[in-house]
Amino acid sequence: MSPVACPAPRRLAHFTLPSVPGNERAAIAQVCDSVAGLNLPRGRLERLKTVVGEATMNAIEHGNGNRPDLAVDIEVFAAGAEVIVAITDRGGCSDAGRLDERARGEVPDLARKLSGDQEPAGWGLFLIRHMVDGMEVTTSGERRTVRLTMRTQ
């Protein structure tokens, strides 16, 4: 049996944004523009917008501490029937272990959060993880990347 050939990812866009609250809207718009030719079904496109916005807000706020001098890097790729969005911040040295741990799957519990038994953060990653087909968080030095994969169909 021969392996199925997977096409190499094709970069559709690469851009940076200053870490200013509200720039998640610019990220959403630029990602949407870059995938326009892929004819994503409306529901998939709306999910992509939501996860890009949430992941970019996390990068701005938690990764880069709302520091405009630190950029959020965003790359968009098409690979076969998948769209891949990589969002990179400079928070790799700060709370990378906690983010990686939350990304792996602690389920937010409203009662525990309100009682202080669970930290208040974590809803965004929970939402993202359940709206995409794949999510991976990697850290290399200061750079932390959240890689989101969504099938086009």
CATH superfamily: Histidine kinase-like ATPase, C-terminal domain
Summarize the amount of helix as a percent range: 25-40%
Proportion of residues in β-strands: 25-35%
Per the CATH scheme, the topology name is: Heat Shock Protein 90
Mind telling me which CATH architecture this is? Answer: 2-Layer Sandwich
**Mean residue pLDDT:** 86
- Rg over CA atoms: 16 Å
Which regions have little confidence, pLDDT < 50, spanning 5+ residues?
none
The beta-strand count equals 5
Q: Quickly name the level 1 CATH class.
A: Alpha Beta
What's the number of structural domains? 1
Shape type = globular
What profile does the largest beta sheet have?
5 strands, antiparallel
Instruction: Write down the secondary-structure element order.
Output: EHHEEHHHEE
Q: Enumerate the strands of the largest sheet in spatial order, edge to edge or round the barrel.
A: 1-2-3-5-4
The secondary-structure class comes to alpha+beta
Q: Terminal Cα separation, in Å?
A: 27 Å
In short, what is this structure?
This protein is of the alpha+beta class. It contains 5 helices and 5 strands, in the order βααββαααββ.
Supply database-style keywords.
153 residues, alpha+beta, Heat Shock Protein 90, 5-stranded antiparallel β-sheet, 5 helices, 39% helix, globular
